[in-house]
Design goal:
heterodimer; A: about 110 residues; mainly beta; 12 strands; globular; B: about 120 residues; 5-stranded antiparallel β-sheet; about 55% strand
């Protein structure tokens, strides 16, 4: 079974802090994705990556950046956390084919105070 | 661009009753469609996927979905609901071309199962 591991389940940070959310997958998947999930807004794509050192903006990239130095690891960075970034963050991976489903981690619930 | 619409943000059924969760898609090319389930405080997991091999797709936990091109629908059904089916369900479509593998999700439907 594919395993996608997010380093933290719960995180509390202060406004203005730099925040790193880490995600690792163990199935050699080419594609990796970061979504945020908010009540009433569904899942919204922040950034995605099709290969090492490649990144593409999703639908809501403002206030975020990403890093993919190794194939198995995809990090989401909040340069200066704000209260409106309080959310559930979901990492996912998939094979490099358009019919491949996503495999999700268990999520990181981030609270910015 | 492809999109999906889930009709009904909340569905409530009695245990043992039929479950029907609705999803309509919009796509200019043959779509690749998925249903995912999310239990509280967990990530999403795949229930089933349509990749054009068969219009009736069977998934895990007794769920199935039928692809109907004429109706642009991919509704999820289960003949008899169980208490453990209570969760949030998401329909998704994968994009092709330069965005190959990128998924667009519906807003989700929360299923409640009453004893």
């Amino acid at each position: 079974d594919v395993k996608v591991t997010q380093s933290s389940r719960y995180l509390v940070k202060r406004t203005g802090e730099k925040v790193f959310l880490e995600c690792v997958q163990d199935m050699d998947h080419e594609n990796m994705f970061w979504y945020r999930q908010d009540p009433g807004l569904g899942l919204r794509l922040i950034y995605f990556s099709y290969d090492v050192k490649m990144k593409e903006k999703g639908d809501i990239p403002e206030g975020y950046s990403v890093s993919r130095e190794k194939k198995e690891r995809f990090s989401l960075i909040l340069e200066s956390a704000s209260t409106n970034q309080t959310s559930m963050y979901l990492c996912a991976s998939s094979l490099g084919r358009y019919y491949s489903p996503l495999h999700f981690g268990n999520g990181t619930r981030l609270t910015v105070t | 661009a492809q999109s999906v619409t889930q009709l009904g943000s909340h569905v409530s059924v009695s245990e043992g009753a039929l479950v029907l969760l609705r999803c309509n898609y919009s796509s200019s090319v043959p779509p690749y469609l998925f249903w995912y389930v999310q239990y509280p405080n967990q990530g999403l997991q795949l229930l089933l996927k349509y990749t054009s091999a068969a219009t009736l797709v069977k998934g895990i936990n007794g769920f199935e979905a039928e692809f109907k091109k004429s109706e642009t629908s991919f509704h999820l059904t289960k003949p008899s609901a169980h208490m453990s089916d209570a969760a949030e369900y998401f329909c998704a479509v994968n994009q092709g071309g330069t965005n190959a593998g990128k998924s667009t999700f519906g807003d989700g439907t929360t299923l409640t199962v009453k004893p």
